[in-house]
Write a structure and sequence with these properties.
heterotetramer; A: alpha/beta; Rossmann fold; 2 domains; seven-stranded antiparallel beta sheet; seven-stranded mixed beta sheet; B: alpha/beta; TIM Barrel; four-stranded antiparallel beta sheet; 9 helices; binds flavin-adenine dinucleotide; binds flavin mononucleotide; binds FE2/S2 (inorganic) cluster
Chain lengths: 274, 319, 319, 274
């Protein structure tokens, strides 16, 4: 992965808008011109829960334009519940942008695979690709139609959108990676963000198709900036993203543990040893 | 109302401009947090613990959020002392604050070996002995859970260096004051109180522990009352300075530790809430003391602890 | 999907319709909560601990809120066993759930005396031995912190009654599993794991401890990871049932304890968050098991604990 | 104190209105017809923080009329901060009404003394007294003018309002109990709610004036319903409110510990042994 880091800092931000896109899915827009100006597609922020006593939460940067950036999240625990309680005019803090984003250079036909909340990290790469006149398809999976949030937005931005739901309530029935595997129009690059089983399936399909894939990984974070080594993933020791000393995993192979928050969250699928 | 408040503290022979250390394992080598905070405004960084041999650490997940806290089971991932001395330590010279090495091990010999080599480097200003990591095989924890083992390891390491030696204690014991006394007699210059509290969480959908390592160490605001009491009890038992830690997020939290008898404080998990916390604490401590006409932070150490003997009294260099 | 899920459990010879006890000292005698909850939908109430002589308890303040938890230092306020038997116990007959007496003391003799008199009453269905209260003079705590004292007090009390005897353990020890084994060998029918974790808080304006008693016991969600681990470890060490407790507020929390190896759970501080929690937990446990096709709560006990021996296996009355 | 308890239960309520009366002082109105119908002046609720993980908070019932009740609170910790984040349309729960309120029978000339947040518990008794054509004066003290919240409301309700501020920014400079002590028009009953030093001063002044006083006490609560004995205060053993067994306090006098949440929060000043 090319180093796509940007100058990060802490921003005290003002909530500009709050939309409930689906039950338990909130889009929070905030005033952050400096952050928006330097954000690279695929980067994230650590958002500080306004009530204190709880660690910051990693959230993908959904939109970044002009004075406004936004995050989109699924309410699944105490911290996202706290953020869901914010309204226009409230304040909170974010550190960012953080991590290494997607490498988009040279691609001509890109398939973006997003599952569930993974959608939050792929609008910016989609916009950048369309802006560069790259053919961009979004393969978007969710449990049910209702959770295919902001689908139309991607269409408006100029993506072709292919959907799948577990229950068949919208688009294909089944996994979105099956739709990817079945595509006739082979992409030359795959980007993916979503739950771990989806990412593994994407890596498998990419291998079958012989297409390079970049995966944005998820793991519980603590620091989000590389300080605690809590979010590691084993990488091929020759990966350009390998940060430090090599060691042997349980199976006896040589690997290097990379920090998802610092060396990632985006990694080349073929370099992961997970 | 005074404006010239002295926030500097001394831990053994280590002089700190500010009473705020960043907890081992939470702050990398400091550089990771430089975009968010002015490192010249913190007292120092305690580096990630290093061991004799390299360690990949525990399987993931290594982190779980819990109410007002978190569990971690990193498992002392580190490159081992050889690689560390060769590749990492030179970079620490540029940190604008104190740099404290942290030593972990699985035998008395391990500790002494790593401590001696690390202390020999100028970039390392002091040593912390992590004899209380709850996330490695049984022996790792045993040191701080057993008064005799504590005494042996501290004594042996003490013989290898004159640099300030801070011994980090575990709260997972029946009598932390007794362990503290052993560490003091064996030659510790200071005590770090406390390391994480042992805990676990279970994934109720998968029917298995949420941490790859099964058990982990609990940190953050949840453990603050436990940590304040540990400091309070240790402060009555020893005369060496204490670095208080466990869930500090605000100046008020820091003051609880100082008033209980800590001479300095350390912030770990708080940096994961907001990286500006350490500088905010220093500013607010300054304001707090100024508003009360207190000229030096040292004056309030132990003030809520009847029967506490201020360590500075015994050094002959303070009132 | 099944609809007839069996949530009943047996603790010694005590049959509980639901696996939910209300923690000693948190629930009065049950009546106090009757306006908010149907007491016939809980397993039972563990009464406030009673001692030989009356006790006014500790000076106020006795309570402090802490992050995701609270400290208490009530100090065993109670009218003493004479007054209690004369004025209070008869009223417990009307409770539509199990009523478990809690015995505290300062000597082995105290415990035996109070336990015998209390157990003799029909209104009391079982006894809990509180040998782990952190809020009374040193001796009170010592019992559960010392394996030999634990063995002595349990053995002596055991000889006074055939009613189910639950021994309540302290987390404030280096090795809770060792203490648990002593209690089991001495004749305990079950173990309550855990009592509160020792802690303190300091008033940074007044420069003194916030509790009248200086130190107190930490309870609530903050200690849940500590409690789950204690249950996990004790469950590997003994074969008698465990009543898990510490920060339970939801069915998911309760399941962590059950999967770790507790046969029942107890709710204390959770009642201070919302008095409907115990009934909600029962409803949600029912739905959880039904959705997974599990017919009896007993089947999931210890399922996240590799190496755990389900207590029911050894009684010959369950699969 | 006469037993002024009402049938308590748990209510899931809807926020109707939220007003910031002063910086950090919030008035929260909610839909609770059943609660409003049975509330006695001086009773309180235990309000459940919507985010879980935190104990319920004791809050005086400020208003209770028709379908609506309200609470007023000073943001001073994590839980009140959480409640301050609620907006119209949000939901939370309260248990109540709880405790024994003020006994108002027979009084002809009542002085109500309120300090700071204590104001939250004295609107209902003031309304009841005025309704019964009792001369009702409010002696209201706060640190500074800004914190004399909702002062005009009491005037509109028909009370005479005498104020004092620590800094003299409004009304008398100094303690409100000094104003009470200096009154020419001696009341025949004093009701008071506020911080403990104010209550002690009120008890002292009442003794000097030879007027009976009822004090609404405050202490950290856990259960709020009499179950934990965390909120006790020593009472004369002959008090009608004495709940149980007598014992000796540190000084060797016989007292009975009463629970502020259950036997109180309102006690006769002359029966307290604090
Ligand atoms: C780089 C990166 C980017 C991310 N971007 C986004 C984003 O844009 N939007 C977004 O919504 N999320 C995103 N996430 C995920 C998000 O950070 C986490 O979901 C976050 O931890 C939620 O915080 P919480 O406090 O609400 O829940 P937490 O308290 O952290 O925990 C909730 C999670 O743990 C599980 N859990 C809790 N208790 C138990 C239990 N007892 N047993 C089993 N499971 C349990 C829950 O089911 C849930 O999944 C991202 C993560 C990373 C690493
Ligand atoms: C019967 C009754 C009625 C009440 N009615 C009202 C009402 O109507 N309105 C209202 O606003 N309040 C009322 N209260 C008080 C209210 O219940 C408490 O103020 C409540 O605890 C606030 O909750 P919190 O979580 O926000 O703060 P908490 O977390 O409980 O603690 C905040 C309080 O503790 C102090 N504190 C916190 N940390 C420290 C420290 N380290 N050192 C020293 N002090 C510290 C703070 O200064 C503050 O006073 C009432 C109390 C009772 C008993
Ligand atoms: C993710 C993480 C990693 C840690 N690693 C170490 C370590 O390597 N060595 C050590 O001595 N302490 C380690 N600790 C303990 C902290 O330094 C600190 O003592 C403890 O977390 C309590 O303080 P806190 O609540 O401020 O974090 C670690 C803590 C955390 C949260
Ligand atoms: C206010 C309070 C009073 C308590 N009193 C007693 C007691 O008298 N006897 C006892 O065995 N445990 C007592 N406990 C401990 C509880 O029963 C319980 O074991 C502990 O609080 C952990 O569970 P929880 O987090 O659900 O409250 C008390 C706890 C609290 C909070
Ligand atoms: S979360 Fe700390 S290193 Fe990634
Ligand atoms: S708060 Fe529990 S008895 Fe009053």
């Amino acid at each position: 992965m090319r180093a796509l880091q940007s100058p990060a800092s802490v921003h005290d931000v003002l909530v500009l808008d709050r939309t409930e896109l689906a039950p338990g899915v909130v889009l929070l827009g905030f005033h952050a011109p400096q952050l928006a100006a330097v954000t690279q597609p695929g980067q994230f922020v650590m958002a500080v829960p306004p009530g204190g006593e709880r660690a910051a939460v990693a959230l993908g940067i959904y939109e970044a334009q002009g004075d406004r950036a936004s995050v989109m999240f699924f309410v699944c625990g105490p911290r996202t519940r706290e953020f869901a309680g914010l309204r226009e005019g409230d304040r909170f803090s974010v550190s960012g942008p953080l991590g290494n984003g997607f490498t988009l250079d040279g691609a001509k036909n890109v398939a973006i695979v997003a599952g569930g909340v993974g959608i939050a990290s792929v609008l910016l790469p989609a916009q950048a690709l369309v802006r560069s006149h790259v053919r961009t398809r979004l393969f978007y999976g969710a449990r049910t139609a209702e959770l295919l949030v902001d689908r139309e937005r991607f269409e408006r931005e100029g993506c072709e959108v292919i959907c799948a739901t577990d229950d068949g309530s919208f688009g294909h029935r089944g996994f979105i990676t099956q739709a990817l595997a079945a595509t006739e129009d082979k992409p030359d690059l795959i980007l993916a963000c979503g739950p771990s089983p989806m990412l593994r399936a994407t890596a498998f399909v990419a291998g079958e198709l012989g297409v390079a894939a970049q995966l944005s990984l998820e793991e519980t974070f603590a620091c989000g900036v590389g300080g605690c080594w809590g979010c590691v993933v084993p990488l091929d020791r020759n990966s350009a993203q390998a940060p430090g000393f090599p060691g042997q995993d349980e199976g006896g192979s040589e690997v290097v543990y990379a920090r998802i928050c610092k060396e990632g969250p985006v990694f080349w699928a073929h370099e992961l040893r997970w | 109302m005074v404006t010239d408040v002295d926030l500097s503290v001394r831990i053994g022979s280590l002089e700190l401009a500010y009473p705020t250390l960043m907890g081992s394992g939470c702050y990398g080598s400091g550089e990771e947090f430089a975009p968010f905070i002015d490192l010249s405004k913190i007292g120092g960084v305690v580096l990630k613990s290093v061991t004799r041999a390299p360690r990949l650490g525990n399987p993931t997940p290594r982190l779980v959020q819990t109410p007002a806290g978190m569990l971690n089971a990193i498992g002392l991932q580190n490159p081992g002392i050889d690689w560390y001395l060769e590749h990492d330590v030179a970079k620490f010279a540029s940190r604008p604050c104190a740099v404290i090495g942290s030593v972990a091990g699985f035998s008395v010999d391990d500790y002494a070996y790593v401590a001696e080599r690390l202390a020999a480097r100028d970039e390392i200003h002091a040593l912390e002995l992590n004899i209380s990591c709850p996330n490695v095989a049984a022996e790792g924890e045993t040191f701080a859970c057993d008064p005799r083992l504590t005494a042996r390891v501290v004594k042996t390491v003490r013989a290898t260096t004159d640099k300030t030696l801070i011994v980090k204690l575990s709260p997972n014991v029946t009598d932390i004051a007794g362990i503290a006394r052993e560490a003091e007699s064996a030659g510790a210059d200071a005590l770090a109180v406390i390391n994480t509290v042992r805990g676990m969480a279970i994934d109720v959908n998968a029917w298995k522990p949420r941490l790859g390592n099964v058990t982990g160490g609990l940190s953050g605001p949840a453990i603050r009352p436990v940590a304040v009491l540990a400091v309070y009890e240790v402060a009555r038992a020893v005369r060496i300075p204490i670095v208080g830690q466990g869930g500090i997020e605000t100046a008020s939290d820091a003051l609880e530790f100082l008033l209980a008898g800590a001479s300095a404080i350390s912030i770990g998990t708080g940096n994961f809430t907001d990286p500006r916390i350490p500088v905010r604490i220093v500013e607010e401590l300054h304001a707090y003391l100024a508003a009360r006409g207190v000229r030096s932070l040292r004056e309030i150490v132990g003030k809520a602890n009847v029967g506490f003997a201020n360590p500075y009294q015994y050094e002959g260099d303070e009132g």
